[in-house]
Amino acid sequence: MLVGLALSLGGWYAVDRRDTAISDAASAAAQLIQVQDVRVQVVQADSLASTAYLVGGQEDADQRTAYDERIGAAAAGLLVAAQGATTADAVELETVNRQLARYVGLVEQARANNRQGFPVGAAYQRQAREVASALVESLRAVEQSTRQRVDDSIERAFRASWLLVVTALVSVVAIVLGSWWLAVRWRRLVNVPLAIAGVVALLVLTVGVGVNGRAVSLAGDAVRSELSAADLVAQARAAGFDARSSEALTLINRGNGAAYERAWQLSASVVESALVQACGDHGVGCAALDDHFVYAESHRVVRDLDDAGDWDAAVALATEGVEGFEGVEGFQGEAGSNPPADFARFDQSSGLDVAEQSQAAARSFDLADDALGGLRVLIVLAGLLVAVLGAVGYGQRLREYR
Amino acid sequence: MTRITDRPARPHRRARRRFAVPLLAGVLTLAACGGDATLPAEVQGSIAEATTTPTTAAPTCTEAEPAQAAVRTYAPLEALPAPNQMPAGTTMADIAARGQLVVGVSADTLLFGSRNPLSGEIEGFDIDVLKVIARAIFGDDSDDRIVYRVITYAQRLPALEAGDVDIVGHTMTVNCNRWLRIAFSSVYYNAGQKVLVKDGSGFGSVTDLVAAGARVCAPEGSTNIDEINKSKYAGVVVVPKPDISDCLVAMQQGEADATTGDDTVLAGFAAQDPSTRIVGEPFTEEPYGLGISRDRVDLVQFVNAVLDQARLDGTLDEIARTWLVDTGALAEADVPPVPEPDFGRELP
Questions:
Q1: Domain that holds residue B267
Q2: pTM greater than 0.90 (yes/no)
Q3: Which residues contact B327 (CB under 8 A, 6 or more apart)?
Q4: Residue B145 lies in a domain
């Protein structure tokens, strides 16, 4: 009977340990997606602000709205992220929140000066970008610690496996020993209830280990495939928008974009490395990678125009694409010469990938959670059954003795 | 000839090559570990590092190059060739054949060289002077004929030394240290270092700032910061910033009480922020010249001839009036007279 209760409690504990580990992994995974989304919103807003600065007083109303939406989404996303953060991360996110407010203030001042034709606006824009960079660094630190949390939780889930195995094995061994003792003591071969208890314990061992293993492998797969893919593509997106900002900045420094061109290349190398990995390992982001190659080609055209002294054409091409671009031979709307449209395609395909993969990861975590929930109940019931059977079996012998 | 920077190799090609090996290693590791389920490490970017030549210490003025002789330049060409008829074999003929004059300018110095956010055009005193040169070569100063390269203060000499630009017109003070690396045209404007303070702050001169121990902003690596760091201004707290326009931001954000810089630049600041004003007398002389490569003495002589003509026919006067008086930056009486040229420098 004691063995049965031990199996019940031990099994419960083992499954619970694992379930907690898996839900920790699931919430850390959701947190990672959340923080990355904030980062993408911020770099997206910054790329809109930089591009708007380039066109000066003729800032497009749609772009302005898009910028406001991104900032609003980033602020809202930060609130959600703060709720799911560890203490250390919460401190970092609070800094991010302050930096975001400062960033918005600087962009506003850049705009106000710009509208009046004051070049000091450029200095504000530069400062805003510095703040945005610091902010992005903070978010990356939070992402990194959240990634660590996902990995640690999954490892804990794996470690919790032996607990259930040991509990069930000990139960089986105890039942076998008990039967043997009873058999020797009363010179009977088989005690039916105890034998059934043994079979039940064995069943728990097999089914439990099986279901448990399935749950952990579901969670493990979610991390290894869907979450990894979402993580990589989200990183590519953040770097992609950063590259688009740098493109605008190369043009603000008319004819002398070398410094920001290096920044562009660095970001583009992150985009491509991340997507090559996502596409190679998970078959995700392959379309986004192709879209980025096309955008990279059209960026090259912009740089070539500016480097060759045709700044006006470079700006028209970078901000309005082929529609707003007349007068340069050879670029009549063929693929690879329309930065806004090409970049929008990358934005769309990569955004879709992140959404799909993060949803798939969440589904896998849910499945794992459901399986373990069922297993928990099953083990408790089985443990109680073993306890009852043990009591009945021992009682049978006791009655015979009397 | 202008050198256009070599286009860098396509990044994605490199990215593919670079990742082939780690990718394979990753797959092998994964296969070996089986159950290991961890997220991949954060993706780091990298680009091929351009080789940078170490910067040597700036040469100092020598006995043979006394500071007061800095404004001395090469004699102008005796006869100024007509536009589009540059003598064969000269730098001007090369530029004419190329069809474009490449100039290094500022895009954020209001009144001298700044991008007009409404039109996107770069405009100002320096730009108009450069247009005079373009007209002398091509008979045309449109954007088709002038390629503007926006450069920072620190890039002015390197851009000329590397041959990236033909002429630099960028509120550049003529001095003997710079003559060791580049050549200058005759002086086209005499600026001086002054201070900009907040209106109503009570500061009336640099002496007041010293007495009050005020925080004074100046751009790093400029002659302005060298001056304010001198022991005679030891009372002030110098606030260094990467660019002079960051100094106006610092004042607007309460990080500095004043900014020191050339009066021309400060006049542009005062125009952007009506709550500031320029006070006191200039405490340095900042004669502005166009910068040209040392190896292109013929271009220096040509530019000097063009500037001489512009001095005589009133063009330089007109440019000063347009940018300094008509904009309301200076009172007519405060505009310094067009400087007289000194052509006493021996041809190399």
A1: 193-279
A2: no
A3: B111, B271
A4: yes
